[in-house]
Input
Amino acid sequence: MPMNQTFSVMPRRLAIGLSLALVLIPTFARGLSLELQRRDPVTGATILEKEEVDPAKVGVIAVDVWNYHWCKTATMRVDAFVPRIDKALEAARALGMTVMLCPSDVVENYAGFPQREAVFALPEIAVPKVADASCPPVPDAGGCACGRERCAGNYGWDGMHPDLHIGKNDLMPDTRTEVYSICRQRGLTHLIYVGFHTQVCLLGKPMGLRAMKEAGLRCVLARDMTDAHPGYDPSRGFTPDLNTDQVVEHFEKHLAPTIHFQQELTRLGKWDDSWVLDPVRVAPWGTPMRPHLFEEPVTVTLSAPLNPGSEIRYTLDGSKPSQGSNLYIGPLVVTDTTHLRASAFRNGRPVCLESEGSFVRLAPMPPDPDVFIGDLTPLRNTGFGHTYGGETRHSGFTRPPQKDTANLGQPLKINRQSYSRGMGVHAPCALMYDIRPDYRRFVALAGADENLISISNGSNLAQHPSVVFKVFIDGREAAASPVMRVLSPAWRFDVPIPSGARRISLIAMDAGNGSREDFANWVNAGFVTR
Output
């Protein structure tokens, strides 16, 4: 998912869904041996076997490596897998395999890319049904790995993760017919899958594993390069990693064998064990650009499942973790605003990329104001656009701040709730008011407006709104919110006004990643006089 780290906390780019992998060992001049793992459907016992195949007859399919997901933890888990999957795809190309990138929902956003247009040059071939690919229902934990503070569904992804390289000779099919036609045209007999989210996208999408198994292709899942549609319940030890293990085992019992891509590439000499590719995984995984807002204490789990035998070290004060930092021995309980940083070490050297986690506690709900800002005349009233001689030419379809409606005229909405009083703005925006002697406190709720969710569930757009709200009193910052995203809880302002203060400014600004779709709302905003 190209994540222009609008919302990643790493010095890499964040994002959400993917699939691909393979595992091989040369056994003769042009062949490789896939080391396959199955499980007995009744006992669950592991069954190992090898299968020789010509690499020219192998396709590797990367499914739904999106740049965003409505679940922030799912987004970051995609981000965590991309470096190793990109290495795997590079090796697959070098070995002569056909690489297919399949971002399903957003594949047509690649119209004009040679890798997409080349698919339509192939003759369509009717897809037969030659195999039974039925299986019992797969464990599904609901898709959100953030625990009690569950994310709300929105469809903001608009492409693949930006760090997933698109090869010159890759193909970008979408339908079952397109994938099957490529396989027939190129003589492919085997398909190796990696990606997100295993029990949903790899299972149910038309280019997914079950569909192509029914068409007669030999399908294999790379178990170290997939992640389930996650869930998280630390009270019973249920983590996204455990969820993925359960789904992979279900595939091995009922649907397809798996391979461990890294181990196989290591045996081929195509993987360097000195590479540091994987971050420590965090659940829930809030980031500075997409923080985890909470009221009740949050249980935070750290893991490094692809680096067994390593020690996870962490800090909670924002300092860089080292081998002498706190040793992670079990879930952490976060009770206040916390900036977590973590890495993993083995034999004195880092084996994981550093991860960050941002957890922000919400203040108590403020009272309603006695004086609403909508009933006052602002001294300063600016919005997104160009300003000439004190007049603002507002940009595009944005408007000046609007009283008691969102900026484009819809109801004021934050976190699934509508409000009747407030100001709808587009960041960057400033509102300035005189402070009367009887004003004691400024109170408000503030958040990203979410009317765009009512249009196709925010399709291609919901990743963009990101706003920071600030309150200045006589030119000095008195309070600020973290980055607010679409469908996040409203930020709660309750700001004391110093005696003798003259003016207050209410600022909505973009979060440093541009102002696209940065519609924002101040609701129940005003002054307490008692």
Q: What stands out?
A: The chain has three domains: 32-273, 282-361, 371-528. The first helix runs from residue 72 to 94.
